[in-house]
Amino acid sequence: MARMSEVSRAYLAVGIAMVSVSFASIFIKWSESPPFIIAAYRLGLSCLLLLPLMLWVNGFSDMMRFTRKELMLVVLSGVALTFHFELWIVSLSLTLVATSVILVTSHPLFVAAVSHFLLKEEVKRVAVVGIVIAFGGVVVLYAGDYSSGGESLLGDMLAFVGGLFAGVYFLSGRVARQTIGVVPYAFSVYALSTVLLFFSAALAGDKLAVSDPRELGLFFLMALIPTILGHTMFNYALKKVPAHIISTSVLGEPIGASLLAYMLLPDEVPTVWVVAGGALVILGLYLVLALGYGPAVRQEEVID
Q1: Contacting residues for 97 by C-beta, under 8 A, at least 6 apart
Q2: Model pTM?
Q3: CB 3.0–4.6 Å: which of 119, 134, 223, 274 could bond 45 by disulfide?
């Protein structure tokens, strides 16, 4: 019974995260700061928001007891998250929100393959079908932007590679979360990524200090909503939910981000390609989340 409630909480966390991460691209589009500064302040403020929880759960003591394997996983996650943010945020300045967000979340096939062959997690046939359909939706959306060429194609490429790094982030997190608590794990990964992002910003010649209240307010919103309620909720769920499920769940972000962009950004009008591709993504999500993992969850609940 206890395990059943834990699994239910994990899936609730996935739902909260799917909604929360959809706001990230909107806040980034509203910001006028350089890409590396946006990402650095977003994760730095996220660490500050997690600090009270770190003290509450003695997270710093847990960090001091990381094994070599756990430390390597945290470093891998932090580096992957850094490259993910750097590539994706730059892509948002080169292409539409819908295209960028969809391509950056096009990593489920990669994550599913690694989850199955390396992590030995079962990927059911219906889940595979759902992942393929969802990825087909991503391809449809990409095709709609292909004719633009130039900066749009560069932005698309950066978003896609950023998505691969997101896949590495979820996979390493899936392994790390089996033995590391969500708070010390998230705090250590975000802190490492913050340092790397500020280093990147310095190399790029960006001004590191930001004093504009509007920009600081946007950074705080990025930290609170898409990071704490988004990424951290995904990290919480990773202990109970296989990585390919989490990875495919992120495909819900393009739908939410596209709708928000349509309502809040005047130049972001969804096309027929967006509608058609979005429908395929939703269908794929249903197959994966509603049918692809249900039997395994019930088996765990009966055993424990």
Answers
A1: 25, 26, 29, 257, 258, 261, 265, 268
A2: 0.80
A3: 223
